[in-house]
Amino acid sequence: MTVTRRREFLLLACRASLGVGSAALLAACSAPGSPSPAATTAPAAQPTQAAKPAAPTAAPTPAAAQAPTTAPAAKPTGDINLYVGGDVNIRDLWQKQLLPAYKKVKPDVNFTLVFDEHALSEQAVFDKLAAAKQAGAVSGVDLWEATGRLAQGGAAGLIQKVTSKEIANLDKVPKDSVDRFAGFGVPYRASSVILAYNSAEVKDPPRTLEDLINWVKSNDGKFTYNPPDKGGSGGNFTTRVLEAGIPQDQLTFFQTQYDESKEALWENGWQILKDLHPHIFNNGFYPAGNVPVLQTLGKGSISMAPVWSDQSLSYLAQKLLPPEIKLLQIDPPFAGSAAYLGIPSDSKNKEVLYEFLNWLLTPEPQNLIVEQINGYPGLDWKYMPADVQQKYADVAKAYSFEFSPQFNTDRNKQWYEKVAGTPPPA
Amino acid sequence: MASVSAPPLRGRSDRADRLREAAIGLAMVAPPIAVLLFLIVLPALQATIFSLGIVPSDNLVFSTGQHLIKSDSPTLAVYSDLLASPFIRDDLWLTIWISLVSVVLVAIVAYVLALYVRFGSGSLPRIVRSLYLVPMFVPVVIASYAAITFYVDRGVLAAILHAVGLPFASPAYKPSGVVITQVWFNIPFAVLMLGSGLDGIEQELIESAHDVGAGFLTVLWRIVLPMNMVPLLIVLTFTFIGVVGSFTIPFLIGPNAPQMMGVAIQAYFSNYNQPQPAVAMAVLLFAICAAAGAVYVWATSRSNKHAVTV
After folding, report:
1. Of A23, A40, A410, which has the smallest distance from its Cβ to B36's Cβ?
2. DSSP structure class, residue A420
3. Which of A60, A81, A239, A302 has the CA that lies 20 to 30 A from B34?
């Protein structure tokens, strides 16, 4: 290729890339606010599977209604389609532990596990249920593990309400966690945020929130947490501090409802966090997620941080955290949450599912959860074997609840403005 | 394009040919126009209208946002709220500052590399010629994590400097870390662009300047730089547009706050559930990029008039 032709080629490439570039730029600029007309779903909608044509609000097209019926749901009773989302540890828990264990108990119940990594298509499953209901068809989803969408689906009549009448062992589950989803799901495992500390450097760890705050102030650069929007461990730490200014009788309001004017009650908490800012690791640096915080702790850069119970216990088991790292729950406790399994109203296998869920809430499968993913059991701790209770004595305490989603998003924004936005002292 | 099919005929069929040609041309240009219209122009228009306070009720993503400003007639309230916030102003200044510094550094580093490769002799320039292309083949996420691993506290560079006994202040999670990674990432395109311009400068021109006693700096200042002006402008505008709108690098290496606009837009849109200010920031960003784009258009149209350089 001659020099001239190369030049021409480059110029051409340059122009083409400007075209593509400016197109991409425009797309990038407008993408947040510009879904294609068909995709008028809620903000979290990121279906990884083929997009379902019908959103919950849109009238379902015949195609949408037919799609679910072609799913394996039409098979005879005893074949269960289980929709689960999460990380690979959750997939392994179901695939290698829980389902094989149940196979030994009930050999004639067959499960088909539809796994969705990182639960990105929770919205897609919701859409599927909504579309099936509107079309009067069967969704083909028999059991669904989900978060807030379960309660939302329950309110919309998509999810079967369960009580201890159908599932006797539900009585052994902490009542708070069942009520949280108004009975539209069985909390079968849980985790909470706890405090991790390096016992080689911290001989007398703080056990209350007040002690923790004082500890951070007197140990410069030895504590950090992640920005509240980047992971629950930092988020629940922030929430715990904000709750310091909220009267006890208003906490439930913050956990279940929304009223912007009540955010004035946060000012006390913001002031505490702002005062902590100069004492945070690396002149006020907050690692961008649950795992980066754990890594900072593991490298020895800090000696204390709020962490998720299951993540930190797994890291300890895999030796990604040194054995000197110890865990405890402070008083009042950080927030936690359960994972819920819900039964879509249109499932034809409800009796089989009640039996399965009742089994799931017995010590043997619950122990698998504790062993495999270091989760908390769905059962109340007192129904667990004594050695498990012993092992988790420092963390196996009740946890508090998170703010409602709207309060959470406002909390995220204000944290950046009021805490991280403070210029570090020169 | 279409006229290659048949030898030209005279009279009426000549006109029919031209009509057919025009029809084919329009048909060929229709798909990209349609894509542009439905995937870019209309959504961008919709977003702009939303940022002016007119909230579409049929768009759940927009209408379920928190702290919406709703109005029946267009209002600039969203923008004035945004620009009144010292937090956002910090973000905006950081974005512009990082972009300008990155652009200047990219231009300097890339120019030196391009000059070396063009005028250097021996085998080293040939090695450099392939080395500077490397960042082009590294995905930006990988490059960002590599930069973090290298520059972070207790990272590779810290370990090396510690062994030699030198102090070290990590640029990671600071604006300087973003600048370093942006420069690294933007070098290949800049050198390719500048290099192709330099290749177009006739060797005879430089040699004759040397013959009349011009030194290296004089040749650079009087001949090379002026003749290579358009590629330089293209590099400046492209790098600027790329850095201003970047997300991955500042997201991974940037500070918690202030943030670059790309990161802030994402945070407002999903983490704070406030799509309206997010969209308004995107419009602001677009206005900034459009200004840079105007420079590019001016530069290329100028180059077409004087076909001396690229």
Report:
1. A23
2. I
3. A60
pLDDT greater than 80 at residue A57: no
Q: How many residues does chain B have?
A: 310
Secondary structure class of B102 (helix, strand, coil): helix
Mark yes or no for CB contact A409/B67 under 8 Å.
no
pTM of the full structure: 0.73
Q: Which residues contact B100 (CB under 8 A, 6 or more apart)?
A: B240
Say what the ipTM of the complex is. Answer: 0.75
Q: Which of A76, A47, A80 is nearest to A64 (CA)?
A: A47
What is the model's pLDDT at position A125? 85
Task: Specify whether B21 is located in the same domain as B67.
Answer: no
pLDDT by residue (tens digit) across B59-106? 777 877 888 888 888 999 999 999 988 889 999 999 999 999 999 999
Whether residue B15 sits in one domain with residue B84 = no
The CATH number that applies at residue B236 is 1.10.3720.10
- Does the structure show a pLDDT above 90 at B24? yes
* Predicted confidence (pLDDT) at residue A47 exceeds the cutoff of 60: no
Tokens of B303: 């180059």
pLDDT at A51: 38
CA-to-CA dists, residue A206 to A203, A232, A241, A327, A391, angstroms: 10, 21, 15, 11, 20
**Mutate: best of B35, B37, B57, B61, partner A, most A CBs <10 A:** B61
Do B10 and B147 reside in the same domain of the chain? no
* Inter-chain touch B90–A421, beta carbons under 8 Å: yes
Structural domain span for residue B69 = 52-306
- Tell me the three state secondary structure of residue A53: coil
Nearest to B48 by CA among B270, B267, B279: B279
Q: What are the tens digits of pLDDT across the range A336-358?
A: 888 999 999 999 889 999 999 99
Note whether B86 and B117 are same-domain residues.
yes
